[in-house]
What does this fold into?
Amino acid sequence: MRKRPARAATLAAAIALVLSAAACGNVTEESPTSEESDGNEGSLTVVDDVGRTVELDGPAERAVILNSYGNEFAQAIGAGDRVVGFDRVSASRLPYLEIAGDEIVSEDLQEINYESVVQLDPDVFILPRNGAWQEASEQLETFGIPVVVATAWDFDVFHETVELLGEVFDEEAGARQVSGFYDEIFGLITDRVAGTEPVRVYWETEQPYLTGLPGSGFDQIIVAAGGENVFGDLDTGGDEQSETTVDPVAILERDPEVVVHEFGPSAEPTGQGRFDTLADELTSRAGWENLSAVADDRVFVTNGWATSGLSKAIGALYLASWLHPEEFADIDPGDYLARWAEEFQGADLPDDDAYVQRVG
Amino acid sequence: MKLSPGGQATATLPPSSPASPGPAESQGGPGRRSRAAWAGRPAVLWAGTVVSVLVSAWCVTAGTTNAGLLDVWRAIRLAVFGGVLTEDFAQTYSVIINLRLPRVLLAFAAGAALSLAGVVMQGLLRNPLVSPFTLGVSPAAAFGAALAILLTGGSAGSGSWLVIGSALGTALAVSALVLGLASAKAMSAATLLLLGIALTQLFEAMTAALQFVADENTLQAIVRWTFGSVNNADWNDVVVVGSFTVVVLPLLLWFSRDLNAIAFAGDDAAKSLGVHVTAVRVGLIVVSVVLAALVVSFCGVIGFVGLVGPHIARLAIGADHRYLLPFSFLTGGLLLVIADTVGRTVLAPSVVPVGIVVAFIGAPVFINLILTRKAAQ
It folds into this structure.
């Protein structure tokens, strides 16, 4: 029988032994300081967006929030100064928050640098339900940092999310103000569009021919604004919150009366060049010269920061004014955008044509 | 099993002579090198082990929290032997023991496992292009994981046993299908590789289809799985992946001479030397598939390591599997540890998934290997 390579096998076995022996010592911690032991642990309990009951030591004084909509909401309810950590998308979309490099803990909602989170020493870590919240809960549990799931991008749970953030930061009054502003806008829209004929709308998001499925937030604001989503009858089997790419020919067949193209949100004012480029691209698409929307100059290009802001309430108001101009003759949606920016975001922004333009 | 590996087995030298000419040369084997030059292979192996330990230790120190090698040593000593954790060291200790150490060890174990799987597959099938990814094992596992995530509406996260089980089950089923077909049809290794490429495309398309119908809540989790990541590493993952990999290494070493015989001399010559070719081939391929599937089920799809790790090892220590197996273990582990460290430091404090970084590192290395081989020929 041939001699087998026993030495290497022994080495491997030794490695296995070392691995199995790891982390089995008895580590005792020094007694916590009196400041720490006096903490009123478990004094605040909230139920988050995925139904988890989360205990916090008290209202959050330091928070890390991932997702730009979540950060907008925190700012709006008056807790912006207590957010100490962000994702890079929030930093790029919300330049007025002046987020520093060492306050960024992730590029997006998935690959989170837990070391950076721990270094910021937050009382709570907040991210939406499409973020890696299960992983974050496991990784941050050791460090005593509770994870709260709050999905601020979801149109369907706007009130619940604002209320939840209000509880976490003990800013119930601020939360009520934000909800009140939202309700004020939708109340206004509902009053004005009552009894009007629905107008056919094609709403495009970010990419050419990408549109919201029935039941999505975009579909809901079209209906709320007195419109009819020309692709409101699609059934792709996908989730109602998702978007889908449609056949360009189908747009011609459905002949929308109003076209809206919303690009990626950023509070950085959009340069005129981008509006012009998008206008040329949209109106020069094959067959679009025959669309009712193009023929009637009812094509709009918007920055998602404006039209998806406040859970799409401001977008709904803009859209309603485009669909039913006679009903909204005395309403300037730009005033509401300015209120959202100045009163709730504390930002000094230029006129609304830096974010929303009629291009054809 | 009637699987017929590609290439003509003409060499008749005993497998204990890895310097023999033959197919091994095409894998960058020792055929071009003198026997004297390879007398130092145990030293190379030991040097590789020391380098691996040092580099891994240095990687534990890298990150946003300041921690030096002494801190790492202090934390490990505390964790292993116990003691009093002072308040000023508590956070550093927790970061090292709960975040960095499991991450580095999982990355090392995953890279080592993929590389071992690659070297075994390449040797048994006598084809240097074979890897868990090119045979369709990794994409199948990713599909299994994505399916579980979708069916549970995203409630089963990446660390869920349901997701891990689904990934493992799918990978094993696909491997059984591929190897069963290969056996039934007496396929050459080249045909097997083509079958693997077709299955890779199919499973990638099926995963993309799941992404198409996934909602916002699950889409990110599925996409992330396809990137490959060790960001969620914990000690359970290290124990499962690490233990299995470390236990499998001596098992593979036990069969390294048989592997040499099959890889260098071919099936007929190996049989004449007393090797039970069919049993060894089936057994070791099953082991390598389980290794790869286990890694994918814990870390997602990580390409290139299974392909490049063995090639780097072969360049350094030759094609004799007695040395190539442990050295591939080291090169694969190091490759993934370095890739992950780059991923979590290059855009710090942001983290780039290791599957992306390893492709950026692995592709140029592999291209260089291909070009070097062509130049040599």
